[in-house]
Amino acid sequence: MSALEPVAKAGEPTAGAASGAPLNPGRSAEQLLEQGMALEQQGQPEEALLRYDSAIALMPELARAHFNRGTILLDRGDAQQALEAFTKAVQYKPDSAGAHFNLGAAYSRLDQHEAAMSAYRQALSLKPDFAEAEMALGAALEEQGRDEEAVRSYRRALEIQPGYAEAQDKLAYSLVRLDQFDEAAACFRRILVRDPHNVEALNSLGLLLNIKGQFHEAVSQYRLAVKLKPDFLAAHGNLGNVLMDLHQFSDAAASYHRVLELNPDSADAYNNLGSAFKDLGDLDKALASYRKAMTLKPDLLVAHSNLLMVQNYLSEQPPQELVEEARRFGETAARLAPPVEPLDNSPMPDRCLRIGIVSADLSAHPVGYFIESILAALVAEAAGRLELFAYANSSQSDEVTARIKSHLQGWHPAHDQSDESLAQRIRDDRIDILIDLSGHTGGNRLPVFERRPAPVQISWLGYFATTGVPSIDYLVADPWTLPSQLEQHFTEKILRLPETRLCFTPPTLDLNTGPLPALANGYVTFACFNALPKMGDAVVALWARILQAVPGSRLHLMASQLSEASTRQTTLERFMAHGIDATRLLIQGPMPRIKYLQTYQRVDIALDPFPYTGGTTTAEALWMGVPVLTLAGNTFLSRQGVGLLMNAGLSEWIASDADDYVKRAVAHAGDLQKLSALRSSLRPQVMASPLFDAPRFARHFEAALRGVWHRWCAQARSPSPRPHIEEARDGKI
User: Fold this and answer.
1) Kindly report the CA angle at 141 between 135 and 146, in degrees rounded to 5?
2) What is the dotted CATH code of the domain comprising 247-252+262-336?
3) Is the separation of the CB atoms in 465 and 668 below 8 Å?
4) Model's pTM, two decimal places?
């Protein structure tokens, strides 16, 4: 019997149905039908099919013969002939819910989903309690992308038949696609009550718990899944991913290694292993893993992005090699992208512009902290001139997300959209200027930009090097971070704002800066709360020189990677190799933001790493009254500290080379009265500076956007070569 056939075909065959000669045409057709059913029960479907064909030849209106014939044809994969058979069955017995149901099944096999849904609905009109038809209708709706309607059908199927396992499974996955994670998790829990050993449900529940931030419970689900099925690749990989979220990087690496034991050619596993090595501070192994992933799967753009990201941590990388690697990424993205579709945005230079931002980090994340106040200011300053839209490549949200949403005309989740569908969504929204906030950081959607869904495309904020993507026209910089001699290292044209490329949103927490700790402690506390991979060997050596030059001083380190005891011990040993006693270091893992900011009340001077300098940590330190000492580099990335401190009015905290870095650290640490006075005045000073003045930044930013739009409009009317640099000064281009 077909799994698609929920009702009896023709009842039990009568005795002797498989033998004997017909007495008259009508009787012989019925006998042939009975014989066919008996042969089916004996496992002889082809012989049964011959009997049904003979019965139909004698009695064309014998609906049950058409029905049973269609079932065999559908089972063997001949959907078109099955469709014809079920059409005849419905013709001769239009009140048969089963015939309409199987007709729908045939249509579904042929991907004729609208016709399938019509047949299922007809079956339900004849038999309202037909749970299988409700389930099949839901599946057809799901195929059409109509998940909300599908959910209603699955729910009705479960109302009719509460223990309907397939409907429960389908409902759970549909709810996931609708981002109804709580209900989906409840569905998977019900599935596991019914079937505790269902490893697919355990894996799916783990994914949902991970999305909801319930990382420890997710780990439990994955561990149970791999215990029940040790070769369950997906669960091992997902376990590694959630361990990364928990900053258990060594255990995450072990999970990825297990995936590679099971599947040595898994490019995705090598990519993920590279990320674990990166957070463990082993950048050479990280690069090797990413390159292995790219060897196995040359078009794996996420591995190429990760490779580019890690190369930024390495001080010895020649800038020209970095831009060439980025160009190779761009060439791959261009090769994979389809031909660019023409856009019909109106080239009116002064009309209201639709601005789109693409990011996975519109939340309590450095990107979220920087952009929140800027969006609020743009809404206030540029109402009627700019409309703002976001394409959020993450399912996670928080209070920052909610505040960001309140400033936008449109918010579109993008995490579950393909590049094609996201690009089409952006085109449908008629975005004029599309801004990438990610670069090669995690969760980027750079391949979408290569599809050119907007006339003007810009990279800004979240990344500090060239993207290499040919279709990204501009990169936002400022005079301090990107002097003209560095432009050759970018595939984008430089869109230079007059003061700063960054503007920070001050925390809303009620925290004072407190007095200078050194006055009470009797020693100076240096600190760095940047990510551990930024602390390369040259950084450790230089900071050790400072600790040796400032007697009794301490160094306070905090990073997510330092939550593991083994990593803390390795970090201590790195400083001990330079003669620094372990008692002079305080090493901590991550903590909630309010506690993290409070920690600055115990810090006298913050040390900026290099070449990958701080951004968010520098802004937060300054807001907490802690000056930051930075080393001016010769790349866009290594000059972020320069841009922040020049705009904060702290030029004396910028060192020109390693010796100057030590000299300035010693001098600042040796004048506690001056350091104390700076601490008490620093927050008002930076709050009045371009670094925290969002309305001022918004005016410059709007002027820059309007300038590049004017340029595009002019080209759209009469194409001409673009100048290499656009300058935005005093609200004008």
Assistant:
1) 130
2) 1.25.40.10
3) no
4) 0.82
pLDDT at 163: 85
- From the list 417, 445, 450, the residue with the least C-alpha distance to 359 is 445
Q: Give the separation between CA 518 and CA 694, rounded to whole angstroms.
A: 33
Residue-wise pLDDT tens digits, 659-718: 999 999 999 999 999 999 999 999 999 999 999 999 999 999 999 999 999 999 999 987
List Cβ neighbours of 269 (8 Å cut-off, separation of 6 or more). 237, 256, 259, 260, 263
Domain ranges of the chain: 1-89, 181-243, 247-252+262-336, 353-503+701-726, 517-692
Closest by alpha carbon to 458, among 442, 438, 441?
A: 438
**Which of helix, strand or coil describes residue 123?**
helix
Which is more confidently placed, 194 or 293? 293
Q: For 353-503+701-726, CATH number?
A: 3.40.50.11380
The chain-wide mean pLDDT, for the chain, equals 93
Q: Find, among 678, 368, 595, 631, the residue nearest to 504 by Cα.
A: 368
Tell the CATH topology of 517-692: Rossmann fold (3.40.50)
Closest listed residue to residue 239, CA positions, set 260, 261, 215 = 215
CATH topology of domain 181-243: 1.25.40
3-state secondary structure of 502: coil
Asked if residues 475 and 494 have their Cβ atoms less than 8 Å apart, the reply is yes
Residue pair 40/48 in contact (Cβ under 8 Å)? The answer is yes
Strand 554-558 vs strand 585-588: parallel, antiparallel, or unpaired?
Answer: parallel
What's the CATH architecture for 1-89? Alpha Horseshoe (1.25)
Share of the chain above pLDDT 70, in %: 94
> φ and ψ at 614, to 5 degrees?
-80, 160
> On the CB side of 446, how many CA atoms lie within 13 Å of its CA?
33
CA dist 556 and 440 (Å) reads: 30
The closest alpha carbon to 382, from 401, 354, 406, belongs to 354
pLDDT of residue 27: 58
Dump pLDDT digits (tens) for 319-330.
899 999 999 999
> 281's torsion region: left (phi>0), alpha (psi -120 to 50) or beta?
left
Of 517, 516, 526, 567, the closest CA to residue 550 belongs to 526
Tell me, yes or no, if the two domains 181-243 and 517-692 fold the same way.
no
Q: What is the pLDDT of residues 372-402, one digit of tens each?
A: 999 999 999 999 999 999 999 998 899 999 9
